[in-house]
Write a structure and sequence with these properties.
Blueprint: E1 12-14, E2 19-24, H1 35-43, E3 47-50, H2 60-64, H3 68-85, E4 88-94, H4 96-107, E5 111-117, H5 126-137, E6 142-144, E7 162-164, H6 165-180, E8 189-194, H7 203-211, E9 216-221, H8 234-248
Helix pairs in contact: 3-4, 4-6, 5-6
């Protein structure tokens, strides 16, 4: 069955020069949240792929049927599409998109660099997962939305108004795999962290700093919450990202 894509949530693709940028959005998010970075990269001349991950940008009911295997497939296929036409490819990811970016870097050692914005790379707490399992057994399939953690009042990320619970369990399983292989990442990383994030705890960034094998630089944001790509520090996030891309893709 075909599911309609919400307005503005379409994927973005641009054929530019021989340097590529993969941009990946987060869990229950959609391309709206990172489109500005994709457009800025395209304007800088890069080839860009910004996929709409399976089950995202449509309906919560659609997302309930998807898993980490679907989202990681989408990210890897988009990376491979870029690699087929580019000499070097970097990855930019927000939240779960950061986890997917890390996973791409783990299994594709050709990644030139990663920009990870408030990434999640640690499995979710066991008590939370057990609570979700109990809710699912009781016939409860959604919970309160987690997707709109933005300090800037005027921002609209077109996120879902609920969080599908079964995919949360799958996300945590995927994060276990990501976390297990962090040391395999040798590409340089720009880690962008919000001081105040109500979705992903800062120890996820600490984990990256402690365990990846390549060079990592961490920049803290003082005026944004989780969806920093659409928040008060958006321009800073974009300029930091473009400067980093210029370094690793030159």
């Amino acid at each position: 069955m075909t599911v309609d894509i919400l307005p503005g949530c379409e994927p973005f693709s641009h054929h530019g020069n021989s340097s590529g940028v993969l941009v990946v959005h987060g869990f229950t998010g959609n391309p709206v949240t990172v489109r500005a970075i994709g457009v800025r990269a395209a304007e800088a001349g890069y080839s860009v792929e910004l996929p709409r991950l399976a089950g995202h940008g449509t309906t919560v009911e659609d997302m309930i049927t998807t898993t980490w295997a679907d989202w990681s497939r989408d990210a890897l296929e988009a990376y491979d599409t870029l690699s087929a036409r580019c000499d070097r490819v970097a990855v930019v990811g927000l939240s779960m998109g950061g986890a997917l970016g890390a996973r791409v870097a783990e299994v594709r050692p050709t990644v030139a660099g990663c920009v990870l914005i408030n990434p999640v790379v640690k499995a979710l707490p066991g008590e939370l997962l057990e609570g979700i399992r109990q809710l699912l057994e009781a016939g409860v399939h959604t919970a309160e939305s987690i997707g709109s953690d933005i300090k800037k009042a005027s921002a609209d990320n077109a996120g879902y108004d609920a969080t599908p619970l079964a995919p949360v369990l799958s996300l945590s399983e995927g994060l276990e795999t990501v976390n297990e292989h962090l040391a395999a990442i040798t590409a340089p990383i720009l880690l962008i962290s919000s001081r105040e994030d109500h979705v992903v705890t800062s120890d996820n960034g600490d984990e990256l700093v402690a365990r990846v094998s390549g060079p990592i630089e961490r920049v803290w944001l003082e005026n944004s919450y989780h969806v920093a790509t659409m928040d008060n520090d958006q321009q800073l996030v974009e300029s930091l990202t473009l400067d980093f891309l210029a370094r690793v893709l030159s």
